[in-house]
Amino acid sequence: MLFTDEEVNALNAQENARPLEFFQAFARDxxxxxxxxxxxxxxxxxxxxxxxKTLNVSLLARLERxxxxxxxxxxxxxxxxxxxxxAKNAAAQTHISKQFIERLPQKKYQARVFGQxxxxxxxxxxxxxxxxxxxxxxxxxxxxxxxxxALTMYEILAHEECNGxxxxxxxxxxxxxxxxxxxxxxxxxDHVMIGDPIYAEGTALEIAPRLNLHAQHLRLKHPVLGAWMxxxxxxxx
Length: 237
Fold this sequence. Notes:
Elements: H1 5-17, H2 20-30, E1 31-34, E2 38-43, H3 59-66, E3 81-87, H4 90-101, E4 106-114, E5 123-127, E6 130-132, E7 140-142, E8 151-162, E9 165-174, H5 181-188, H6 202-206, E10 213-221, E11 228-232
Parallel strand pairs: 3-10
Antiparallel strand pairs: 1-2, 2-3, 4-9, 4-10, 5-8, 6-7, 8-9, 10-11
């Protein structure tokens, strides 16, 4: 989602003028779980995870208005909705960040892709490197010569229709966490995510009002309790 300089200035001014009560209500509405150490929220589509270079409207900035101690751990693309975990102190941030480095957390995304892809129940993996392509900013591309691999596991959930066109509902499990990994991997198998403003074109873009990608499931170890914990967010599409 791209904004003009005038739109950015207007959005920043609007956000700065909001009262504390707005941010408190926003936080209550998106909170899935909260304790003294962690904060699990359901990020709305169309909202940055952190402030951009010029746009100062983001999930982190809004949560900081409610609790200035909140700390970032990972991100979702602006066009993606779903579960994000924030830390509420430095120790929790360090503990969970190490889990992500060691690839211990388990994340599952639900997506709808254009066309009919494989049979229901089919599983597989996509293992091709993904990198940023400056010539087509903000796109990423598959580059088989790139040194950092990217691995996604998938399961076909259902064959559906969206506005009269065949689409496939799929569960995606990223093993690595490259930027735009899931979106680019779907392009690679010729089943772009519907409604994707960056990678979809024509009918695949137009049949859905938003990117059909949602972070549905998150599982990790609590930084203090040491127990594995799971959270779910139903798919909004």
